[in-house]
Design brief:
Blueprint lengths: L5 E4 L3 E2 L2 E2 L4 H7 L17 E4 L2 E5 L2 E2 L2 E2 L5 E7 L4 E3 L2 E2 L5 H10 L11 E4 L4 E5 L5 E7 L3
Parallel strand pairs: 1-9
Antiparallel strand pairs: 1-2, 2-3, 4-5, 5-8, 6-7, 8-13, 9-10, 11-12, 12-13
Length: 142
């Protein structure tokens, strides 16, 4: 059986979901139920919530993203079917990730909070004490 996965496309989206899509388009692509998880926190009216993933939209009301809003950002927390640079997101460690960024001449910063930030590719990735990736956030300002 073929494993289903979502490949992160920095500056573009994830899997078949592209920045700029409206909530109906995103929901039709996601083949899973929406679910809230404790790590997600509150004040999520601008988002669609899935297991290990928050999809953000640029406009919302008290019920959620509005019909004409556009997908503009994503937060991923330890989800096992997400890939970045051809490798499972949860398998990256900080050292290897930095090596790939250097090899691809991607500009980035390393703040003291165990994260790596690239303004060029509009992402921030966090690592835990064991240097395993646990959180990725990326966005589009177009």
């Amino acid at each position: 059986m073929e494993e289903k996965y979502l490949e992160i496309k920095l500056l573009k989206g994830i899997g078949q979901i592209e920045f700029g899509m409206n909530p109906s388009q995103v929901i039709s692509i996601m083949d899973e139920e929406q679910v809230y998880e404790n790590w997600m926190g509150g004040n999520l009216n601008s988002s669609l919530l899935f297991q290990g993933m928050i999809l953000d939209f640029d406009q919302h009301n008290s019920n959620g993203p509005i019909k004409d809003s556009k997908f503009c950002g994503i937060k991923i927390n330890s989800r096992k079917d997400i890939y970045l640079f051809g490798r499972k997101l949860i398998e990256w460690n900080e050292f290897e990730f930095v090596e790939v960024l250097h090899a691809n001449k991607i500009q980035f910063e390393q703040p003291p909070n165990k994260s790596i930030v690239s303004k060029e590719l509009e992402f921030e990735i966090y690592f835990d004490k064991e240097d395993d990736s646990v959180w990725l956030e990326f966005w589009s300002f177009e």
